[in-house]
């Protein structure tokens, strides 16, 4: 998995979640952040201007970055990630979390032939709704990066976000995942934020 974010003249690439007590080393304006032998991130300083914020790295750009890593004496560890991170999804089913009175474990369809498990505390979770799945590698408008993990000991592969968490213009100020109209798009399609900003929500 590869997550990329650009700010000022620094391109930040994340390969794994942040870890406490991590170390870093810098060579030729590239900083490697790591713990033990695992690389967590690379920060490239002095990169030509890119769109600010989360970006999608092309195959060509990754090849260029890996060449910079080699020239600096690092391993070429960056791998192209073609998967969309914000997708239209469908809640197939859910059960109560075995170790929580407010969480549920949902089976969520993210394409015609793939489902994932997501632990959710959304009060409006129900079977048969169309929503937005924020999959591992997604960078939320708040800057939070979504990683696979566990919630109260149960595997969770992403999150189902509220309109406000998605930064949508008409988002209500209340908890609860976004519920998309049936005709918004097909399950598995990339969520269209421009179209999402046109949605009206009942306050």
From TrEMBL:
InterPro entries: DUF4479, NA-bd_OB-fold, tRNA-bd_dom, tRNA_bind_bactPheRS, YtpR-like_sf. The keyword Iron does not apply. Residues 80-192 form the TRNA-binding domain. The keyword Acyltransferase does not apply. Keywords: RNA-binding, tRNA-binding. Gene3D superfamilies: Nucleic acid-binding proteins (2.40.50.140), YtpR-like (3.30.1940.10). This is tRNA-binding domain-containing protein. Pfam families: DUF4479 (PF14794), tRNA_bind (PF01588). GO terms for molecular function: tRNA binding.
